[in-house]
From TrEMBL:
Protein's recorded name: Tryptophan synthase beta chain-like PALP domain-containing protein
Gene3D superfamilies xref list: 3.40.50.1100
Pfam families registered for this protein in UniProt: PALP
Residue intervals of the Tryptophan synthase beta chain-like PALP domain: 16-306
Keywords: Lyase, Pyridoxal phosphate
Length: 318
């Protein structure tokens, strides 16, 4: 393992632009904080990971990064690649993704394909392998820089450690591919924090949620339902699913499903705090609010991560 691979996560200089906001008024009797990771230039919490991948790829002599996305990671990689001066190709599922024109405006080569997010990842990986001898890197979350991506996502925990006097009781995260969950778990263990990880996704539309608390099983692609609100949250195969299930269980946390109306309500509630996530970007808070309303939440501080911003909201790149 190289010295770059072994290095500890580093909090970006602009981490203070992704504030920790007290929204306890939304859950009377509880201490609730949101970490607004949508305020990076790309509007995505995945930007630190994208920057780390770009740095590694350039150090390895690559001139292009190829990846599959349904929105957030593609926007983050487009911004990170433009800033570093490296080419970027993002493969998106047509009709089941967002931000294609935004990514093109940021300088990315965007390819639309028929199929799902999983199909986009598979096609992007084929492109990277076909051109691998010519300096093209596989930037997918389970690609050649998977460990680098995990360290990038783990930065959020170090940012919390710098801001909080004591570890929170729980951290609420988007389920997705399970990548963020694994990354946060690694950093929690490194810091000896006894914080529970709760993952949240679109009910019935993510293989981790339908598997929990049992053995991971992929869904039939025809089983999932994509809407305008849940689209970034739909995964018939979560690429890091088994590992993420184990990580959640290890912390004593759980996985929760929410409906579209829960996503929309959570996003709407945050406008008063000058936070403007998409409904899908507010999924972690939606899970916390739903849990608080139905069965209550454990005592102590709860942190929910916001993961994606409306593209036309304040702070959007010009």
């Amino acid at each position: 393992m190289s010295s770059v691979e072994a290095s500890e996560p580093h909090i970006p200089d602009d981490a203070d632009q992704t504030p920790l906001l007290d929204v306890s008024a939304l859950v009377p009797g509880a201490h609730v904080l949101i970490k607004d990771e949508t305020r990076y230039a790309s509007g995505s919490h995945k930007e630190p990971a994208a920057r780390a991948v770009v740095a590694r790829a350039m150090a390895d002599g690559c001139h292009r990064i190829v990846l599959g996305s349904c929105g957030n990671y593609g926007r983050a990689m487009a911004i990170a690649s433009r800033a570093a001066g490296i080419s970027c190709t993002v493969v998106l599922p047509a009709g089941k993704s967002d931000g294609a024109e935004w990514m093109r405006a940021a300088g990315a080569d965007v390819r639309l394909i028929e199929g799902s997010y999983e199909d986009a990842v598979a096609q992007s990986r084929s492109r990277a392998m076909a051109d691998g001898d010519y300096g093209v890197a596989d930037g997918n979350v389970d690609g050649q820089y998977a460990e680098t991506i995990l360290r990038g996502h783990g930065i959020v925990v170090d940012s919390l450690a710098a801001a909080l006097l004591t570890p929170p009781t729980a951290i609420w995260l988007p389920a997705g591919n399970g990548t963020t969950i694994i990354a946060v778990h690694q950093r929690l263990r490194a810091l000896n924090w006894p914080t529970a990880i709760n993952g949240v996704g679109s009910r019935g539309n993510n293989a981790m949620l339908t598997s929990w608390p049992g053995v991971y099983r992929m869904l039939d692609p025809d089983q999932v339902r994509t809407t305008e609100h849940n689209q970034p949250l739909v995964n018939w195969h979560a690429l890091h699913g088994p590992e993420a299930l184990a990580a959640v269980a290890d912390t004593g946390g759980a996985l929760y499903g929410v409906e579209d109306e829960d996503l929309c309500a959570a996003a709407s509630n945050l406008a008063q705090y000058n936070a403007f996530p998409t409904p899908a970007g507010a999924v972690a808070l939606a899970g916390l609010l739903t849990r608080a309303r139905t069965t209550g939440v454990a005592p102590g501080a709860h942190v929910a991560l916001l993961s994606g911003r409306e593209l036309d909201s304040p702070g959007q790149p010009s």
